[in-house]
Amino acid sequence: MGTEVSSSRFFKQDFKTYEKRLREETALLGEWFANNLFARGHPKGGFELEAWLVDGNGVPSPVNDAFLEQGRDLLVVPELAKFNIEINGSPLSLEGDALSRMEAELRDTWRRCNDIAAALGASMLMIGTLPTVRDRDLNLENMSSMERYRALNEQVLRLRRGEPIGLDIQGFQHLRTAHYDVMLEAAATSFQIHLQIGQELSVRMYNAAQIVSAPIVAAAANSPFLFGRNLWDESRIPLFEQAIAVGGFDSPECGAQQRVNFGVEYVRDSLYECYLKNQACFPILLPACMDEATEKLAHLRLHNGTIWRWNRPLIGVDEGGENHLRIEHRVVPAGPTIRDSFANAALFFGLVYELGTQAVPPESLLPFEEARRNFYNAARTGLRAKVTWLNGKRGAILDLLLDELLPLARAGLNKLGLDPAEGDYYLGIIEQRLRSGQNGAAWQRAYAEKHQCDMKDLTSAYLERQESGKPVHQWTL
C-alpha cells in the first residue's frame, strides 16, 4: 500500500482496464514461478515500524504533514492517520550481527524522529493500540493527505453499500460501536517483520510462519485497551479485521473470506497460489491504472497490498533489479521498546527457519484449522492461552514457548549463521519476558489496576518506561 494513486475517483472503464492488467501480470508471475526466476542467496530480514505521534497529554497529535516535511531524508512514510507514521528498515542478510545492526539503525532513526517530533510539541510512541485514542479522533479530518487513503475509504464504503463499519470485540469487557469510515484501522499499529527467501524455501517458510503466529502473538501482545475498554491481549487483531470489513467473492473456491484474514489453508506447491486467490477471490479495490511495464507487476502488487493476510507474500525488487520473494509477518504489535521489537524478530526468524527446514514439515503435523484456532486464541488470551501443537499435543502456550520453542528458535538462528551471542541476547529477552509473565499487555493491565488510573496516566507511565530503553519485563509498576 505504499503506492500513491493519482485520484480517488474511478469509473467502470478503470475497473475493466485494471482487471486486464491484473490478469496479464498474474499470468506473467506464474511463468516466473514455473521457471524459478527469483533471487537466490542467503535469507534476508527487514522491518517496518508503525508509530504514534502524541502530545504532552499522551493523546494523538495530528502533525505528520509537518513531521514528514522535516524528515524527508529519513525512511519514513505517512500512515492512514495524521498522528501515525511508518519507519522502514534496510534489509540485511541474516548472518553475523544482523539483528544488532537492524536495531542500531532503528534506534538512530527513532532518535532523529523524536527530535523532529519534539520540535512540533509531540513525542514518538510505539504501542499496538493507543489507550488514549478516542473513537471521535478517528475521523476524516485526521486522515493523512494522500489520495490512496481517500480512495481506500471511498471504495470500502462502496463495497459495503454505505453500511457503517461495526466494531464488536468481547474481551474482559465488551466494546461495540459503529463507525462510518475506515479510520478505525489507524488505531492498530504494528512491527512488521520481513523475511526474504528463495523460491525453494518459500512454501515451507510461509507455512511455518502461519504455525508460529500463535505463540509469537502471545509473547508479543501489547494491545489490551481500546476506547477505554479492557479487551483482548492483542486487541489489534480483531480491530484491524473489523476495520476493513470487506469480503471477497463468496464462492466454493474462495469461501467467505474477509480482506484481513489468516487464510483458509496451507500453501501447497508455491506462493503463486496466494496471488491466484487474490485475482479470483477479491474484488479490485483501487483500480489505479499505471503506465508501467507488465514485468513491474505494479497492478498485481497494489492489489496484493489491499489484501491484508496476517502473513502476506510479497514480490519485491532488489537493488540490482532482481525479483525476490518475501514473507511479511504482520501479527506483532508495535513496542513496547526497540529492544523488545528485535527480540520478537529473533523469535520469528529463528522459529520459522528451524521449522521450515526440518525433515518432517510441521504443517503435516498440525491441521490448518488448529493453527488458525491457536492464533485467535493466543491473540485473545495471550500467555494464558491453551493451544494444540504438533501431533495433537495440547497445553499451555507459555510452557510450549519456554520448553520447546525457545530452543528451536535458538537452533534456527544458529542455522542461519547469526552470531551465537545474538541469539543469546535477543532470545534471552524473550525468556525473561516469559518467566516474568510480563509482556506489554500484562504490564498495561497491572499498572492500570494498581493505580486505578485513567488512560492518560497509563500512557504517560508507558511512555516514560519506553524512553528508558529497558525491555518490558524490567518495567516497574
Please explain how this structure is put together.
The protein is built from 14 helices and 16 strands. The chain has helices at residues 12-35, 64-70, 98-119, 147-159, 199-220, 236-243, 272-281, 298-304, 338-356, 368-381, 397-416, 420-436, 440-451, 455-468, and strands at residues 44-54, 76-78, 84-88, 92-93, 123-125, 165-170, 174-179, 191-197, 225-226, 229-230, 260-261, 308-309, 311-317, 323-329, 386-388, 394-396. Strand 9 and strand 10 (229-230) form a beta hairpin. The model has no long low-confidence stretch (mean pLDDT 95). It has 477 residues and is an alpha+beta fold. The longest helix is centred in the first third of the chain and has 24 residues, at 12-35. The strands form 5 sheets. Strands 1, 2, 3, 4, 5, 8, 13 and 14 form an 8-stranded antiparallel β-sheet that branches. The protein is 44% helix and 15% strand. The chain has one domain (12-467): Creatine Kinase, Chain A, domain 2 (2-Layer Sandwich), CATH 3.30.590.
